[in-house]
Specification:
The protein has 113 residues and is mainly alpha-helical. The chain has one domain. The protein has helices at 2-26, 63-80, 84-96; strands at residues 42-45, 48-51. The radius of gyration is 24 Å and the shape is flat.
Length: 113
């Protein structure tokens, strides 16, 4: 039984690697990742000048930031569609693993002075 489990765990990455080219071929070639606009921003800290063209992405309430992040999420969802089956099957490995009491008791080896 243990050997079967080990074989399944070791075989999963191999199967994923074999299926990856086929899955990538199924993705929409027209889908392009969103490109964040570059806005020059200079900060001086302790005499050092730091240039960050993507500083504007820190403004979480900015509508441009929100729309850019939504576009990134949509792109990620589109690219990951072929792997949906792999994601679902991977979650069962953690639920099937037996829990072991390997944690150390909080007071093990520690004596109050």
């Amino acid at each position: 039984m243990y050997r079967d489990r080990v074989v399944r765990i070791l075989a999963a990455p191999l199967v994923a690697a074999l299926l990856a080219p086929e899955m990538l071929a199924q993705t929409d070639v027209a889908a392009r990742p969103p490109v964040a606009m570059k806005t020059p921003h200079v900060t001086t800290v302790h005499g050092d000048t730091l240039k960050d063209d993507y500083f504007w992405l820190r403004e979480k309430s900015n509508p441009k930031v929100i729309s850019y992040l939504e576009a990134e999420n949509a792109y990620t969802e589109e690219m990951m569609k072929p792997t949906k089956g792999l994601h679902a099957s991977g979650s069962t490995t953690t639920t099937r693993a037996p829990r072991r009491g390997n944690s150390i008791p909080p007071d093990a080896g520690v004596r109050a002075a």
